[in-house]
Amino acid sequence: MRVFLQRITAGVQSAGFIHPKVVENQEEVKMKKSIILGALTIAGLSAGAAAAGTLDDVKARGTLNCGVTTGLVGFAAPDANGEWVGFDVSVCRAVAAAVLGDATAVEFVPTTGKTRFTALSSGEIDLLARNTTWTFSRDTDLKFDFVGVNYYDGQGFLVPKALGVSSAKDLDGATVCIQTGTTTELNLADFFRANNISYEPVPIETNAEGTQQYLAGACDTYTTDASGLASTRATFENPGDHVLLPEIVSKEPLGPLVRHGDNEWGDIVRWTLNALITAEELGVSSTNVAEMATSTTNPEVARLLGTEGELGGMIGLDADWAKRAIESEGNYGEIFAKNIGEETPIGLARGLNAQWTDGGLLYSPPFR
Amino acid sequence: MTLQVIAAILLALALAYLYSNLAANLRAAGLNISFAFLGSSAGYDINQTLIEYDSQASNFRAAIVGILNTLLVAFLACITATVLGVLAGVLRLSNNWLVRKLMAVYVEIFRNIPILIWIIIIFTIMTAVMPGARAYLGEDPERGLLGGLFAFTNRGVYTPAPIFTTGFGGAEGSGLNWLLVIAALVASFFGTRFMTARADKIQGETGVRPNTFFVNLAIWFVPLIILAFLLGLSWDMPDPLANRFNLRGGIQIGAPLIALWLALSVYTGAFIAENVRAGIQAVSKGQTEAAAALGIRPRRVMSLVVLPQALRVIIPPLISQYLNITKNSSLAIAVGYADVTATLGGITLNQTGRAIECVLLLMAFYLIISLSISAVMNVYNNSMKLKER
Q1: Higher pLDDT, A31 or B40
Q2: Which one of B31, B350, B360 would you mutate to disrupt binding with A, by most A Cβ within 10 Å of its Cβ?
Q3: Cβ–Cβ of B346/A202 closer than 8 Å?
């Protein structure tokens, strides 16, 4: 019996499965494994990236995989029933309504500032609607396509009132909580360098973590997009004890984005967003869209809602795509008012995000 | 042999397939592998830097800052985990029931809860329990510095920093001063080794061991005192008045470093304690009894007879624990500690989008560090091995 066992062991060893030296050093084995696994993951990741035809994939799957934040009240957060709601969530739902005819056919994938781009380029999500700033390098070097802007934002600073700070330039020497992997991290460095003052960054992963650190006093100020700060402050026990400093230190055009290279899919998302904006401009809302579709005399409304022309067919969808998108979530103004407007706890004014006709920056290209 | 060759060929083929698949897919996605981003400006700031660094420095320098931070926390944690582990391991075999059980509780609690949880628990407790930095600030602070020297805040611990006012680099100071101090310490180390060896020799020849304690003390401290005098040692105190947000001056040991260091130490210490216990129990009881029969006192039995033999069993698993500490330190980002995973594998990766390159570099770094630790510890292991003649 013993001889038999010895033979087996020797056989296995000579086959190269167990090298005596490798057995001695298990760590080495682990590491080799992790290299191979890593390579596999990378190879797998990019295999997804290469796949084109997102529209067909989404239709075949029957759901839209949409990347959102891990939780930012007003923009994207699960409500009391576990349903995702928010300003960015509405974009996902509108696209799902346009493409699949069902605004609930969305699989929401929570992403952090760090994981969002990998999730999109690997094909894990079809669309990223996660208050992401449109920048040159993200659009070009990272191979993404920003399809538009759904919120014009800027970076601000939140401080406790008790600190007695009235300007961001008074923050010399302060400890600053900052979400890592975001453009705000770079703006922050630029702002303090330009004003020749010092600070100490505390990098954090998620908004929840940042809130906790800020409230515990581990940092003097929390900086991110002003809309995000307003949303975060609304969740505090005593929102009145905290103020947003007047300085807005950067331009942050936030918008949904898709992978570069699949222009058909990019067009669908772009024009769904434009449809929501145009609908507000033309006075089409979720309540009157059905009626407008049948009775309108305005040719642009008729083209938008598919009663005239062939716009839907041009992007590979049916004639009612925009009608469904507007029906499900409302037009841009409704989405804004419902999630982050002045009536909500977040209380953001339209400001730059008003229609161009009202002095804002929202300006959709025409539907024709 | 034939089987080995076939296995090797299959493995090579599999790797080649993975590589070609990767290359083809990257090409199809229009991406290319390039390390040019390492030279471009990083653009972000880091809170703990052991070398000079600002947001205009290159991504490569940011990676070096991260690497040094990783090495720092790994080094500190290896030392404290070993001390803790050896103590707990020895005490687990104590004759005192209470001590024995307490150590068992320590080991079981700490090694059975994931390290990430420990890191977060310790950090959360620190930020929640310790006073804010502002409690120490101003003309009439809520809290005074402990002994006028130390401040304990939820952002970290502040201590006085030694500075050299008349050494190299004048009042500004320079790294050369520190090199001198390190050189003096190394010289002292070998000096004491020599004195101990000499004492051993004399003891072997005459049977009387000369007292080396005071000589060794002098070898350690006299050069340092002379250096301190020559270089004009002075202390930079934490200053509560310089800034309205934070203490300025002195050394700040950040809360993330403390949390990570502590968590790695107590967690890995529990594993090392078990290794030490196993090692001690592997030494046959006859050895202890023989030593006792020779009239050696119990404490010396442990240090002169049992532990040297136990080390042969302890060291190989200890290497694994050191490797674990180094690799587990990559959980630093959970508390915002700027280790290499957080700088190169986190912020740089994100800002440049060069995920594959960054991950490859990270893998190479951890591999090199782990293999180096293995190599050094194996040399030590070989020197401790039973010498068969």
Answers
A1: B40
A2: B350
A3: no
